[in-house]
Amino acid sequence: MPKEDKQALINFTKRFFEIPNDGGVEKWILQSVARKWKEHKFELKSKYFKADKTREEIEKSIPIGFFPNQWNAMVHYWFSEKSKHLSERGKAARTYYKTPHTAGSKSFARVRHDFEMTQKKTPGRIEFFSLTHKRKDGNFINKEAQELAEKAISLIEEQAATVENHSDYDIEDVVFASVFKEDKYGRVRGYGLGVTPTQLSGALQPKRRASQFEVDRLQHQMENMHSLYEAKIESMKEDYERKSIAMKMDYDEKLNSVTKAYEERLNDVTNEHERRLNGVTKDMEEFRTSMELFQKLFSQRGSWVILLH
Fold first, then answer.
1. Which residues are bridge partners to 140 per DSSP?
2. Record's Pfam families (predicted)?
3. What secondary structure does DSSP assign to 177-206, as a single string?
4. What is the pTM of this model?
5. Quick check: is 131 in a domain?
């Protein structure tokens, strides 16, 4: 759209509303008009662009508020290959959109404002996602939205337990970026039309915040690993000492057992030797006694022979 036409739209809007001279507000006006025009074209195409109608029939059905040349240009675009390609791509992209919000025609800015007025606080991004994706009965719009919210809450609890010196909003912003992916350029999820990261406080700049958060998380993780390492080393030392004592006790026990067995065997051998020695000594004593008896008998026999002669 030419710059002159954009300025004309802004001036026309200012005729009905008191708008501050702020470039951000004027940008929001243009974005709002662009969105409404896009939605209007979608409604027109849904109503007039039918598969059972020819191009000529559609061109004749000129809606109120259109000049014939404007309407013909739009119909010509609908039948172009570019439009068909973008339409198919849009349908395919729409299949990946699993979590429609439940705010209806009420803008996120109004939903956020009403929440702040009633709850007296600013909702976190996960909290606002849950708020805008639940029905009036308090249940989520579908299973996918519930699983995303539960996953985010679980990660928040996990990060809060491991990372110190960070507010709940810090952690929630980083978890939101990891679960729902980072915001696209020039927009912030959950804040409605026109809001950009730079317009908010530093708390909602997820890339920078996520980097610092990740550094702190890794530092905390390294400290935990160091503590676990030290504890593991101490445990290994204690285990080594216990095993060394146990091995020494087992060695002493086996040594005592072998020494005892050796001493018992030595005693057995000594006793057996003494028994045999005693037996030989006894045999020699008996032999000597026999020899003495023989000599005595022999001496007596010699005396008998002399007497006989």
1. 134
2. Transposase_24 (PF03004)
3. HHHH-PPPTT--TTS-TT--GGGS-GGG-H
4. 0.51
5. yes
Helices within the chain (DSSP H only): 3-14, 23-48, 55-60, 68-78, 81-95, 108-119, 125-131, 143-162, 168-180, 206-308
Q: Which domain holds residue 183?
A: 101-204
132: DSSP letter: T
If phi > 0 it is left, if psi is from -120 to 50 it is alpha, else beta; for residue 165 that is left
Q: How many domains, the chain?
A: 1
Per-residue pLDDT, 4: 87
CA distances from 130 to 88, 101, 139 (A): 31, 9, 9
Separation CA 116–CA 114 (nearest Å): 5
| pLDDT at residue 203 is higher than 50 | no
Nearest to 134 by CA among 150, 119, 122: 150
**153 Cβ contact partners less than 8 Å away, ≥ 6 residues apart:** 126
Domain assignment present for residue 291? The answer is: no
Specify if 303 maps to a domain. no
Tokens of 290: 């026999």
Q: Encoding tokens for residue 256?
A: 């005592």
What is the Cα–Cα distance from 135 to 270, expressed in whole angstroms? 101
Amino acid letter, residue 154: S
Q: How confident is the model at residue 198 (pLDDT cuts 50, 70, 90)?
A: low
Q: Is residue 90 part of a domain?
A: no
